[in-house]
């Protein structure tokens, strides 16, 4: 079987739900391609030009599906920056159940511990039907990878969307080297056991179909092994790996000094304004997807606490909160976004004055504006309930112009690498978070500068290129 793959098969393959490009269908019938960024994109570019690597991903919307219809799923390299991409046209109902139903409403919730357990989850007939779609969706990926892989190729499967792929692919192509990478935390055993036993085992076995199941930190890898021991009874050895992902310093430094970012710094400064002495107001920045696990609501409550408890800060500080739309098909995400919006309005109504808007909330995604905020922030607030790594915590110190104090949740993976120079908080403790914000705002400039330097060094120790090449080397070893 393998030999029929030799001639054209790729030697490296990546699989992820969201690919490096997405399409929108314009009114005139043309397709507009939009390229994404992120660690995988720059990691993959590290294997160099002229590579035969293939990236397999799912069509996510109508534009993507139209692109698949027109190209047969082998996308135009002009749209992808030269990367060979195979986009799978999975039926929308199947993809919807797998992505919204299982991946984002069950698996994401388990690993981030987001369930309101008195009422949810409940695993009945609807869940079982969605699970069948999750299996079908994983099978579509496994079959596409099996088709496109050359003999002995290395396949890097990404995240909780595709937990069953390694096992399925192993059965189709025993010759392949397969890695799975979880970009999320992994649930503690007792929480993972909320899942029906057969499903929990199927997930673990699916991932163990890989030669290596990899995680962003030791903590998540240990949790995964504990689940395997408990649910699979320690059958065989669980091969895990840990590969931290750092900020892409070269890209960020170059990108954050382009003209569009400069323009946005001007716009932000205008909105932030100056205090009574004419000095620019202090700025607390956060940048997130509007994501339940990011803890945006408690961040706003902490800022309100700061203004309530320490009236000195009124008129002198602004909280710049960028909360970009995410997973809006899910009602719970829509109402979370509404809550964020309401709370920002309440704080502005309670404390705002003619010349001062305490919370500047922006809900439309704008990468250049995010970089502008990184550059001018005095304080970055990164307070997730739980987070696989959190790259904002790593990007800010790299980009910061004048030094930025970092208030960081101990539940973010980044805490393991940045904990020493951050002000560390329990993300549920609003009082402590408000206190940390105060300390961050009053930190002497020299200390803030020193800490920022050390944070930037730690944050860039493992650039995406190394993250990717290390995994490849380990797989091939
Ligand atoms: C997390 C996940 C990624 C996912 C991203 C955005 O970082 O680990 O796999 O792509 O969130 O979420 P979305 O549902 O929009 O792809």
UniProtKB/TrEMBL annotation:
Q: What is this protein called?
A: Trehalose-6-phosphate synthase
A Pfam family assignment: Glyco_transf_20
Molecular functions per Gene Ontology: alpha,alpha-trehalose-phosphate synthase (UDP-forming) activity
Q: List, alphabetically, the PANTHER family matched.
A: BCDNA.GH08860, TREHALOSE-6-PHOSPHATE SYNTHASE
In the record, biological process GO terms are: trehalose biosynthetic process
Family the entry assigns? Belongs to the glycosyltransferase 20 family.
Gene source species: Streptomyces montanisoli
């Amino acid at each position: 079987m393998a030999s029929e793959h030799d001639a054209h098969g790729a030697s490296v393959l990546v699989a992820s739900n969201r690919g490096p490009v997405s399409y929108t269908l314009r009114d005139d019938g043309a397709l507009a391609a939009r390229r994404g960024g992120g660690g995988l994109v720059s990691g993959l570019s590290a294997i160099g030009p002229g590579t035969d690597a293939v990236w397999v991903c799912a069509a996510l919307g109508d534009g993507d599906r139209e692109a698949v219809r027109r190209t047969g799923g082998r996308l135009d390299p002009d749209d992808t920056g030269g990367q060979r991409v195979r986009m799978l046209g999975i039926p929308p109902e199947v993809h919807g159940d797998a992505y919204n139903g299982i991946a984002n409403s069950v698996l994401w919730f388990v690993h981030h511990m987001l369930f309101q357990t008195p009422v949810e989850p409940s695993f009945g007939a609807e869940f079982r039907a969605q699970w069948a779609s999750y299996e079908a969706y994983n099978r579509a990926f496994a079959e596409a990878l099996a088709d496109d892989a050359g003999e002995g190729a290395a396949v890097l499967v990404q995240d909780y969307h595709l937990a069953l792929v390694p096992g399925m692919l192993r059965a189709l192509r025993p010759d392949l080297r397969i890695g799975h990478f979880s970009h999320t935390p992994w649930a503690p055993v007792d929480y993972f056991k909320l899942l029906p036993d057969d499903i929990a085992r199927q997930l673990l076995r699916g991932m163990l179909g890989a030669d290596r199941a990899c995680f962003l930190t030791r903590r998540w890898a240990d949790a995964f092994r504990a689940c395997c021991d408990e649910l699979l009874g320690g059958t065989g050895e669980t091969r895990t790996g840990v590969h931290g992902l750092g900020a892409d310093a070269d890209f960020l430094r170059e990108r954050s000094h382009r003209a569009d970012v400069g323009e946005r710094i001007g716009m932000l400064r205008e909105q932030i304004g100056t205090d009574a002495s004419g000095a620019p107001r202090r700025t607390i920045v956060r940048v997130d997807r509007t994501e339940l696990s990011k803890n945006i609501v408690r961040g706003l409550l902490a800022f309100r606490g700061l203004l309530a408890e320490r009236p000195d800060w009124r008129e002198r500080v602004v909280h710049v909160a960028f909360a970009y739309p995410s997973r809006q098909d899910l009602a719970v995400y829509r109402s979370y976004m509404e809550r964020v919006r309401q709370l920002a309005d309440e704080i502005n109504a309670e404390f705002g004055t003619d010349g001062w808007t305490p919370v500047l909330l922006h809900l439309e995604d704008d990468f250049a504006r995010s970089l502008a905020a990184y550059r001018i922030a005095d304080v970055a607030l990164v307070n997730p309930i739980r987070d696989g790594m959190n790259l904002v915590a790593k990007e800010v110190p790299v980009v910061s112009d004048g030094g930025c104090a970092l208030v960081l949740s101990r539940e973010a993976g980044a805490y393991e690498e940045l904990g020493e120079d951050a002000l560390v908080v329990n993300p549920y403790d609003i009082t402590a978070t408000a206190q940390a914000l105060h300390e961050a705002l009053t930190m002497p400039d020299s200390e803030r500068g020193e800490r920022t330097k050390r944070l930037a060094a730690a944050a860039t120790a493992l650039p995406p290129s190394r993250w990717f090449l290390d995994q490849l080397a380990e797989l091939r070893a």
